[in-house]
Automatic annotation (TrEMBL):
Residues noted as binding ATP in the record, renumbered to the chain: G10, P11, D12, G13, A14, G15, K16, T17
Domain of life: Bacteria
Cross-referenced NCBIfam families: DTMP_kinase
GO-annotated biological processes: dTDP biosynthetic process; dTTP biosynthetic process; dUDP biosynthetic process
Assigned protein family: Belongs to the thymidylate kinase family.
Keyword Oxidoreductase in annotation: no
Protein name according to UniProt: Thymidylate kinase
Signal sequence range: none
Database matches in PANTHER family: THYMIDYLATE KINASE, UMP-CMP KINASE 2, MITOCHONDRIAL
InterPro entries the UniProt entry points to: P-loop_NTPase, Thymidylate_kin-like_dom, Thymidylate_kin_CS, Thymidylate_kinase
Domain Thymidylate kinase-like: 8-197
Keywords: ATP-binding, Kinase, Nucleotide biosynthesis, Nucleotide-binding, Transferase
Name of a matching Pfam family: Thymidylate_kin
Gene expressing this chain: tmk
Amino acid sequence: MKGIFISFEGPDGAGKTTQIKLLKDYLEKKGYEVLVTREPGGTNISEQIRSIILNKNNIEMNNITEAMLYAASRAQHVSELIKPSLEKGKIIISDRFVDSSIVYQGIGRNLGIDFVKSINDMAIQGIMPQITFLLKISPNEGLKRRFSSDECNRLDMEKVEFHNKVYEGYLELESLYPERIVGIDASRSIEKVHEEIIKIVEKKIYNV
């Protein structure tokens, strides 16, 4: 792959959207072609699946159904958008990727990491981010930010115990994949977080 794949992970409310925009603007000013996308979503079909997954009315959704819908959305996302864009040499910045499924469904829903990885293996076609920024903020603080924005979805409505479990899952992944996952203290100012992200991305770009 000619391009660079960067993903952002962390609790909702950690500031992913803000930091992704700042990084995109920075890289474009440097002359790079940057494509921002999100999961679930990123393509027409994937966005339709997203609307089903996150619909607050779908409270009866089975946990396995949820995991498979995420994998289906991801399969379309990778084949239609991410893989072709990387082959063209673009920088892809994705708001979430497969790590989200591992922690939310594998750990949060108790489906198991191995199960979630197995149903996503075909979906990702061997493509993983070179850098994953884990924006670290307490689940309680993240939820406060989310509810104040009026953007809460079906997963946001889960009990705080679920979100704590997901956060612990993220910390576990950070320890398992230190060469890829970079933990960032997201409780600091937007500027400080952005500065740290830039330093890491520049080092990766120049080493590619």
